[in-house]
Write a structure and sequence with these properties.
Largest sheet: none
Number of helices: 4
Structural class: mainly alpha
Strand content: under 5%
Number of strands: 0
Distance between the termini: 92 Å
Radius of gyration: 25 Å
Shape: rod-shaped
Order of helices and strands: HHHH
Number of domains: 1
Length: 153
């Protein structure tokens, strides 16, 4: 019993740590849009590198989470990991631990949705910035061609 309770607690902690990382990623990501808007690409690259490191750490938690989920699936003889199924299969003395796990997962879902939305906005902003920059470069190239073309006459 204690071993399973420790696995549930470890899973809750891994999700909590991952949640904190995703919140930090969200804070970093909120800087991206502003940096893109102001054309601060050097600073943007630094922010993206920081974000990449945080995402890597979140991925490491994901491996730990999967391993713990698999152990619980095996112990409770579930087809796959599912909190509702786990709550049904687990005896009463695990229910408080599962409620804590459920609370963290419930908090994680909207954070992930917000991150996904933020990522789409940042990608769109970067695409717009690149198109605008390319258009400006094209205008400058044409001006240069006209200036040099007129000089040859």
């Amino acid at each position: 019993m204690r071993e399973i309770r420790e696995k549930i607690t470890a899973l809750t902690q891994a999700y909590t740590d991952q949640l904190n990382l995703y919140k930090e990623i969200g804070e970093v990501g909120s800087q991206e849009g502003e940096l893109i808007e102001h054309g601060q690409l050097d600073r943007l690259l630094q922010v993206l590198k920081t974000k990449e490191g945080l995402l890597k750490r979140a991925g490491e938690y994901e491996q730990q989470i999967r391993a713990l989920q698999e152990q619980l699936v095996t112990h409770f003889e579930l087809a796959a990991f599912s909190l509702p199924q786990l709550k049904l299969a687990a005896p009463e003395y695990y229910q408080d631990d599962l409620a804590a796990l459920n609370a963290v997962v419930s908090e994680l879902v909207p954070v992930l949705e917000k991150l996904e939305s933020q990522e789409r906005r940042n990608e769109a902003a970067l695409g717009t910035y690149l198109k605008r920059t390319q258009a400006q470069q094209e205008v400058q190239r044409k001006r240069a061609q006209r200036a040099y073309g007129k000089g040859d006459s």
